[in-house]
Amino acid sequence: MSQLVAKAKTLVNKMIVAARPQLDEFWKYAKVELSPPLPADFQKLKQTAEAAKNASKKDMKGQLKKSGLSQVTVGQAWLNMLVTVEVITWFYMGEVIGRRHLVGYKV
Predict the structure, then answer these.
(1) What are the residues whose beta carbons fall under 8 Å from the beta carbon of 100, sequence distance 6 or more?
(2) What value does the mean pLDDT take over residues 52-75?
(3) Is 105 in contact with 99 (CB distance < 8 Å)?
(4) Is residue 96 within 8 Å of residue 102, measured between CB atoms?
(5) Are 70 and 63 contacting, i.e. CB atoms less than 8 angstroms apart?
(6) Distance CA 76, CA 68 (A)
(7) Which among 73, 101, 104, 107 is least surrounded, fewest beta carbons within 10 Å?
(8) Is the pLDDT of residue 103 over 80?
């Protein structure tokens, strides 16, 4: 029995030695990535959001003209809507076929 305990201890020690580099790297990144945001981070986020809002207001009309969205006719819009409905319908039909049941999932 003491031999079994000795083998288990050596096995555990070998596992700890083998896992140490991966755990050290994990903790290094975990300290940075999993830490809560600081007040300075919120200030930087606020400044970035304000800059994006101001840039989007300036370019809104230019982007609308550039995209050609204002030049879509009623017929083209109707066709786009029909294609969208068809794609959504095929998606839901695939869901029904995939779960092999019309209503809900079998649990």
Answers:
(1) 106
(2) 74
(3) yes
(4) yes
(5) no
(6) 12
(7) 107
(8) no
Q: Rounded to whole angstroms, how far apart are CA atoms 26 and 92?
A: 41
Q: Are 66 and 59 in contact (CB under 8 A)?
A: no
pLDDT digits (tens, 9 = 90+) for 68-80: 767 888 999 999 9
| Structure tokens belonging to residue 83 | 């294609």
For residue 63, name the pLDDT band (cuts at 50, 70, 90).
low
Return the percentage of the chain with pLDDT > 90, whole number: 35
Per-residue confidence band for 82, with pLDDT thresholds at 50, 70 and 90 = very high
Distances (CA, A) of 4 to 1, 7, 11, 17: 5, 5, 10, 20
The amino acid present at 83, given as its one-letter code, is: V
Distance CA 48, CA 25 (A): 31
Q: Are 56 and 62 within 8 A, CB to CB?
A: no
